Every structure is written in C-alpha cells, then in structure tokens.
Amino acid sequence: MRIGIDCRTMLNCSDGEKAGVGHYTTSLVQELVRHYTEERFVLFIDHKTATIPEMSEFKKHAHVELVEFPLSTYKKYLPYVYAHPLVSHWINRKKLDVFHSPAYTIPLQYKQPSVVTVHDLVIYSHPEWFPKQPKFSQEKLVPASIKKAARVIAVSQSTAAAAKELFQLSEERVQVIYEGCTTQKRVSVVKAAAVREKFGITGRFLFFIGTIEPRKNLERLIAAFDQLVLQHAPRLASVQLVIAGAKGWKYEGIMNAATKAKAQKQIRFIGYVTHEEKIALMQSCHFFAFPSLWEGFGLPVLEAMGLGVPVLTSRIAAIPEVAGEACEYVDPENLVSILRGMDRLMEDPTYRQHLAEAGQAQAKQFSWAKCAKETYKCYVDVVKRH
Asked: Going edge to edge, which strands form the sheet with 240-244?
C-alpha cells in the first residue's frame, strides 16, 4: 500500500513537551514506520516540520518518502480557497491508496479514500472554554472532513459518541483506537534533585502539568489546596502546589486566584518544562493532581500512572476509560469533592501505595505499538472497501 500521513502537526519540541496532537502523530508514525516496512509511507510536511529531529530518522528508511508542501512558508498569505486546492493537488500526485489526517481535517478538495483522527470535540459542547476565533474550521472544515472520511478514528469511546451524535455517523464508520503510553524511565535521584533545586521545590509537593487555561480547572485546584493547607496548619506549611505548563487563554484569572490565596507562597508556577524535567517532577511528587473539566483522552494521567505516581483526577469524559479504578476520582465542579480527594491522598500512605501499584498495571494496557497495529488494520480495511 501507499499510505499518506499528514505530519504537519509534529512539532520541534526536543527540548520541551509536545502538544497532544503532535505527540500522537509523532508516536504513531514512528511505530508504523518501524513495524510495517513492506508498505510505502508518504509523509507530508511543511517548512517547519522539515527541520525537526524525527525527520532525520525517517529519511534513513527506504520505505519512507518525505514530501514538503510547496509555498508552506507563505501559508498565512494564501486564502483557504487557494491553499486547499493546492494541498489536495500535491497529495493526489502521490497516487495514494489511503490518506490519514491525524488532526481533524482533510483538504476540502481531496476526494480519495481517507482516514481522520478526532481527539476532542468539546469545543462544540462548551465553546465558552475556548477563545473566540474564525469559525471556518469549526463550522465547515472539521464537519466536512469527518463526513467524507472513509473511517473516523476516535481516541476514546467518549469522543466516538460525541462524533456520532454531532455528525450523524453510522456505527461502522467510527473506530475507537486508544492512544499509547510510552514506558517512561525514571530519571536518576541526582537528576531529580537537581530539577527540584532548579525550581525551588523543597519537601513534599503536589504536581500539575498542562496548559494554564480555564478548562484545566486550576482555580478550583488552587482553592482546594488553599483550604487543605489551612485545615492542617501548621503541619502542611511547607507543602507546595507546583503548576507546570505554558500560559494559555484566560490564564490571568488563574494567576489572580493564586495571588489571593492565603497559601500563595506555597503555590509555584514554573512555566514550560522539558520532558526530562516533567518526568523528574512527576516521579518526585506526593501525588499528581489533574481535575480537568474535560479530556478527550487524558494522556498526562496515564503518564503519571505509568511512573507509579498516585493520581487525583476527574470522573468525566474519557478519563475513566483510561484510568480505570486506579486513581482517586473527584467531581471537578465540586470544591468539597476536590478537597476531600486531596486530603485522602495527602494523609493516607497505604492508599497512595495502592494507587501507585494499580496505576502502573493499568498503564501497561496502553501502548503505541498497539495503537499503530490497530491503525494499520484500519488502513487495510479502508483500502479493501474502496
């Protein structure tokens, strides 16, 4: 088969953390290329992705072809009506058996057999969680891509249900293929200590990583932590809440909440961290706190569990599918529920150890090799049917 994959969502984050879709695309393509050497993979890139380290590795494989879209440098100057026909034409030239877009959209004029991956459709049910932006993608491009794709891959049952309801898709056109969890190696004790020292973290701490935005529910997390510290004063006077991640939409309200907290000196925003720093902090924390309001999959939860770290998270959307019963669940919209969960994890070492062991076992059920195997079978099925 000639399999085309849009790789423009890959990001050059060798010194930091990839965004969710970029992480998915990179991990999936690496596994496909590694295991299916009898197939021809045509990877479509742009001027940005052409320079990332992963592309140097892909170039070493005889069964991989890299195709850079022309004029990608001038994308911002090209109206949609010109960009889509141009990209469609360039894909058509490669005479593919199947084309896969790992990120929601297929060029409007592309008519050949295609597969599209849908990660999260919460913007349709909760638009208030997102900044106002042009509606073309949300109202035209995404619906058109999903409706014309031969197969829609959803990364969870929760996302699959939303796709079927929103776009009236038949059962057989939607396939759930879970993301994987890379087996993370714990960093050395010396390196972990150096990372904590770099960010001024001493003693016990709770850890969160993600974009600093309302959807991540950080204002309630901060409020619950503030109450936890006050209830157990002065015993928890040295415990810290460490929040890592880039600033996103409406981050100001979250920063203000921390400033107004009575325990403000114990709340630290450390910004964007490298992959190694994330692992060091995750493995060192008392527990990982992730009370998000919605997740299409919930990869940070799975990563923490894989490291043997107790997790507090929300019983919403796809998270229970991923985490099973191996974490402390809370109602993300109920401050008391979050506080109780934090209190239990803070005070019960036996329970923390139970979650650590259960979490590691649960995380082993998810792998990128399995994700690639099921995705490859999807390609084969689409080609046979068309």
From this structure: 267-271, 240-244, 205-209, 287-290, 311-314, 328-330
Using DSSP, state whether 275 is helix, strand or coil: helix
Residue-level pLDDT at 72? 64
- Where the chain has pLDDT below 50, the residues are 12-17
User: What is the Cα–Cα distance from 10 to 67, expressed in whole angstroms?
Assistant: 14
Q: Is 210 left (phi over 0), alpha (psi -120 to 50) or beta?
A: left
Identify the pLDDT of residue 15. Answer: 39
Q: What is the pLDDT of residue 14?
A: 39
Specify the pLDDT at position 271: 95
Question: Are 307 and 250 part of one and the same domain?
Answer: yes
Distance (Å, whole) CA 14 – CA 18: 8
pLDDT at 19: 64
What's the CATH number where 374 sits?
3.40.50.2000
CA 331 to CA 338: how far, in whole Å?
A: 7
Task: Spell out where 26-75 has E strands.
Answer: 40-45, 64-68
Same domain, 150 and 199: no
3-state secondary structure 125-146: HCHHHCCCCCCHHHHHHHHHHH
Same domain as 259, residue 317: yes
Whether the CB-CB separation of 201 and 273 falls below 8 Å is answered with no
Q: Are residues 12 and 152 in the same domain?
A: yes
Q: Which H/E stretch holds residue 223?
A: helix 218-231
Are 204 and 340 in the same domain? Answer: yes
**Cβ-contact 155, 24 below 8 angstroms:** yes
Angle made by CA atoms 129, 131, 136, in degrees to the nearest 5 = 110
Query: Which pair of structure tokens corresponds to residue 382?
Result: 């689409």
Which pLDDT value is given to residue 316?
A: 95
Segments forming the whole domain that contains residue 336: 189-363
Looking only at the bridges linking them, the beta strands covering 267-271 and 287-290 are unpaired
For the chain, the 3-state helix, strand and coil shares in percent, each to the nearest 5, are 50, 15, 35
* 210 and 173 in a common domain: no
Burial (Cβ within 10 Å: 0-12, 13-18, ≥19) of residue 231: exposed
